Structure formats: structure tokens, C-alpha cells
Amino acid sequence: MGALVVAEGGAQFVAPGPQSFLYPEILPGVTKPVLQIALAVILVGAFYVIASGRLKLVPGKGQFISEYLYDFVRNGIGREQIAAKDLRPYLPLLLTMFTFILVNNLFGFIPFFQLPTMAHIGFPLGLALLAWVLFIFVGIKRHGFGHYFGKTLFPPDVPKGVLILYTPIEFVSTFIFRPITLTVRLFATMFAGHIMLLVFIEGGTFFLEQSVIGIKFISPVAYVMAIGLSFLELLIQCLQAYVFTMLTANYIGGALADGH
């Protein structure tokens, strides 16, 4: 936790840090991020239930959005990563995952919430572990335990002498690093983006409260930067929902591939 001292009365600016993400309990064991997760579950579930229950030839706004999301996930993510004959059973998961992550990320842009839920590492870790368990499960189910791990770690086209290096590297990268990188990529971008926003917003407020006129002029610059960063973070929030879902689909597609 750093601090910037701006003179006159020795006023001190405490830079935002991990402590900015600590929220008091609303109920025992329930904090603001937990409520946001629960709200996201309700919103996503209710949206798709309502949209799919009132299908019309000429779609309304809700049906149009749901069809657009479905088409985007199916054609922009699923078909690019999973063979067409295997895709259909995994589309509901990919669509739900994309929408769920997107809603939780967008909470950081929406007034009142102003906190991307995925900036708390436990939530992206849970999703990453789900993806990890799933791609291993479908690989074993499709190919059998021994064949799946054998083809992954000991491919026949790799010379035996190279396997000494290849096998441990492939094991670590496939079965250890994948959930770690999925978690860190989503968590770090949401955490860092929100920290940067807080720096400019709280810094602008701090400068505005100073009595020195020259320092007050810095405040509008900080607020303008905060607005610009908000829209940049909005882009990254959407992008990270796509990346996480795309990589999950890629892992599932790789586990199902005939090459295994």
C-alpha cells in the first residue's frame, strides 16, 4: 500500500490496492462480490428462460439478443474449436459460461455495482477448475483413460529420446498450467483495470479537495482519464469473457480430437 504526500497540511493520498477489494459482510459469509455472483446467476438464467419461452418469427429485443449471443458463441467460438459432430452437447455450457463471465465483468462498468466480480480470484479459479475437470473428463470418456493420457503424453510420432523432455513439459503445460493461466488471465485483467480506475477516480477527488489552486487543476485531467479507462476496461471485459470461453472450447475440442 503506497501513499503520496501532497503538502500543505500534510494531506496524504493512499493509493488503491488489494484492500480496496475487501468488503464487509452484509450477512454472515455474504459480501458484495458473493451477491453479484448470485445476481448474475439469476439474471443469466432468467434471461434465457424468458427469451426461449417466447420465441417469435419476428424476434423482439430479448429474443434478438439471445439469438445473437447463441450465434456468436456457436459460430465464433464453438465451431472454431470443436468438431461440428461433437459441438452440440457443449454449446449450452459455452453459452452460459460466456454470458455469466460477461455479466460479472460488466458489473465493473455499471453504476452502483462498479466492481468486476472476477477481480476476486476465487471466482475465476472456480470456473477454471470446471474447465479443467471437463476437458479431462471428456477426453477420458471419448478415448479411455490409458489411451487419452498415453496419446497426450507419449505421442507415437515423437522420437523416444525426445520424450524425456516432451512428456514432463506436456504434462505440466496441459494438466497443471491450463487452470492456472485461465485463472490468472481473467483475474489479473479485471483486478488491474479496476485498480487503475480507482487510482484516477480517488486521485481526482483527492486533488479536488486540496486548497492549492494549481493542484485542483489536476483533478479534471484525472477524471477524464478515468472516463477513458472505463471504456477501455469495458472492451477488455468483453474480450476476456470471449478469451476464457474460447480457450475452454479449445481444450474440450483438443480432448475430443481423433488425434488423441
Describe this structure in words.
- The protein has helices at residues 32-53, 61-81, 84-87, 91-106, 122-143, 145-153, 160-208, 213-216, 218-256; strands at residues 3-6, 11-14.
- It has one domain (3-256).
- Helix 2 crosses helix 9.
- The protein starts with a strand and ends with a helix.
- The radius of gyration is 23 Å and the shape is globular.
- Helices cover 72% and strands 3% of the residues.
- With 260 residues, the protein is mainly α.
- Residues 1-7 have low confidence and may be disordered.
- A hairpin with a 4-residue loop joins strand 1 and strand 2.
- It has a two-stranded antiparallel ribbon.
- The chain is built from nine helices and two strands.
- The longest helix has 49 residues, at 160-208.
Briefly summarize what is shown.
The chain is mostly helical. The protein contains 9 helices and 2 strands, in the order ββααααααααα.
Mean pLDDT: 86
Distance separating the two termini: 49 Å
Determine the number of helices (DSSP H or I, runs of at least 4 residues).
9
> Which sequence of strands runs across the widest sheet?
1-2
What's the number of extended β-strand segments? 2
Summed up, the domain count is: 1
Runs with pLDDT <50, length 5+?
1-7
User: Which bin fits the share of residues in helices?
Assistant: over 70%
Structural class: mainly alpha
Radius of gyration: 23 Å
Membrane topology: Multi-pass membrane protein
InterPro entries: ATP_synth_F0_asu (IPR000568), ATP_synth_F0_asu_bact/mt (IPR045083), F0_ATP_A_sf (IPR035908)
Pfam families: ATP-synt_A
Family: Belongs to the ATPase A chain family.
